[in-house]
Amino acid sequence: MPSLTRWYIRAAFTYLLLGFTIGALLLANKGVQMLPGLWRWLPVHIEFLLFGWVVQLTLGMAFWILPRYWQKPRRPKENYARAAILLLNLGIWLVVAGTILSISRWVLFAGKGAELAAVLCFALHAWRRIVSRQGA
Amino acid sequence: MPPLTRWYLKSALIYLVAALLLALVLALPQTTSLPPFIRYLSPAYFHLFLVGWVTQMIFGVIYWMFPIITRTKPRGNEQLGWASYSLLNAGLLLRVIGEPLNATRPEAVFGWLLVASALLQWLAAVCFVYLAWPRIKEKYRGE
């Protein structure tokens, strides 16, 4: 498992725990209302689990598992995949800040923009690794 | 494929079918006569899909595929794995039962079903991360 994949997966597991914690509090609060303001954390729960856990883990696994080149660099354009993990995590926290802190709608926009940039970067890295056994 | 992975993956497939069956029912026109509690199953649908199918499939494949820890205990504490599986599924099923009950008959006891569901699912995630974390490594080095 390459180093970059390990970072993707550790981050994904962290978001899994964060997302499940918020989700558990939301569900418990639904059953026995303790914290009325908790419901505004629902978008954070969704963001952590959809982007932080599912998307991030998938990208990390793809970086590991997709066919590698015969010659070095075995995983070309690795900097795009590195940029992707940074942009994705920046995006997630900007979205969270934009949602919870209500600073400005543009913070949310910037977050989603960073996430879009992240997946575009990853696609640029991964596209040419999607090949048949014959390498085409 | 280890037994726990087989349980995870077969369960995940069952949840996928269940989620889409529920989606089908929820997609029926509002004019269709359905028991009242059905209309409260929308969150259950999302979680049958995202927790029951997606997350459970991921857990099963991770348990199978990640680098092993040692020859003697390749996948760590297997009991913890089974605990995670049991907690996740028990919690999810409690949610599916408890959520519509809590919505249609908000007596105190049904609310506590959701509290129990929340706790079980959270513990499942904690157990699984604790189990899988040591396997986030470059490769097995003959330990």
Fraction of residues in helix of chain B: 55-70%
**Molecular shape of chain A:** elongated
Largest Cβ-defined interface: A-B, 25 and 31 residues
- Give the helices and strands of chain B as they follow along the chain: HHHH
Rg value of chain B: 18 Å
Compute the number of helices of chain A.
4
The share of residues in extended strands of chain B comes to under 5%
Strand count of chain B: 0
Distance between the termini of chain B: 21 Å
Oligomer: heterodimer
**Low-pLDDT ranges of chain A:** none
Mean pLDDT of chain A: 93
| Alpha-beta classification of chain B | mainly alpha
| Major sheet details of chain A | none
Shape of chain B: elongated
Order of helices and strands of chain A: HHHH
Write up this protein.
- The complex is a heterodimer of chains A (136) and B (143).
- In chain A, helix 1 runs antiparallel to helix 2, helix 2 packs antiparallel against helix 3 and helix 3 packs antiparallel against helix 4 (105-126).
- Chain A is an all-alpha fold.
- Chain A has four helices and no strands.
- Chain A starts with a helix and ends in a 10-residue tail after the last helix.
- Chain B has helices spanning 3-26, 42-65, 78-104, 108-132.
- Chain B is elongated, with a radius of gyration of 18 Å.
- Chain B has four helices and no strands.
- The model of chain B has no long low-confidence stretch (mean pLDDT 92).
- Chain B is mainly alpha-helical and 143 residues long.
- The interface between A and B is medium-sized, with 25 and 31 residues.
